[in-house]
Design a protein that fits this description.
mainly alpha; 9 helices; about 0% strand; flat
Length: about 180
């Protein structure tokens, strides 16, 4: 499938075009299913993941930015991320109660705890160097998981302005963390 054609279909899906959605499904499902199957290694789970992938595509088509990258990469990322989420959600099955005792202690050692705490303090200090609204936007984007559009709406700024805020803020944070 041509990238421009996929971008056009995603654009039409963003407008609620069901025929475009069906066309996109018919043209991309085999590849996305292969991604899901490769990660999950279980056909039934891969089929379930694929269904959730297309639900996500339908819901998130408006957030796709044709200028920001390849449409096939965007679709593949959704499939990959959904499959990984399902993989992480799997719970380990213990055959016997005794086998549960063989699990490693998940508690981190005191040195790791101290390093993590120190890193947290450094991040807090660097966040204080940002303008207040930028710091709030960064926290909401990267801690609470809000989208660029949701943040732009909350702050009453254009979408591209919000992207610029976040990018510049992350660059400032990176620079501060290197000091």
């Amino acid at each position: 499938m041509q990238g421009d054609e996929t971008k056009d279909l995603i654009g039409r899906i963003a407008l609620g075009d069901r025929l475009a959605f069906a066309a996109l499904y018919n043209q991309t499902a085999p590849k996305l299913f292969a991604i899901c199957l490769r990660i999950l290694k279980d056909r039934a789970e891969a089929e379930e993941a694929l269904q959730e992938v297309y639900i996500s595509i339908w819901q998130r088509a408006r957030s796709f930015q044709a200028t920001s990258g390849s449409s096939s990469a965007w679709l593949a990322a959704i499939a990959r991320n959904r499959s990984i989420d399902l993989l992480r959600a799997r719970k380990p099955v213990a055959d016997e109660l005794d086998s549960a005792y063989d699990l490693a202690d998940s508690e981190s050692d005191p040195e790791s705890k101290a390093a993590t705490k120190d890193e947290g303090r450094r991040i807090d200090t660097c966040m204080e160097e940002l303008e207040a609204d930028r710091a709030v936007a960064v926290k909401r984007a990267y801690v609470e998981g809000l989208s660029y559009q949701e943040l732009a709406d909350q702050f009453g700024v254009p979408l591209n302005t919000m992207r610029t805020w976040l990018r510049r803020s992350l660059l400032k944070l990176r620079e501060c963390m290197k000091r």
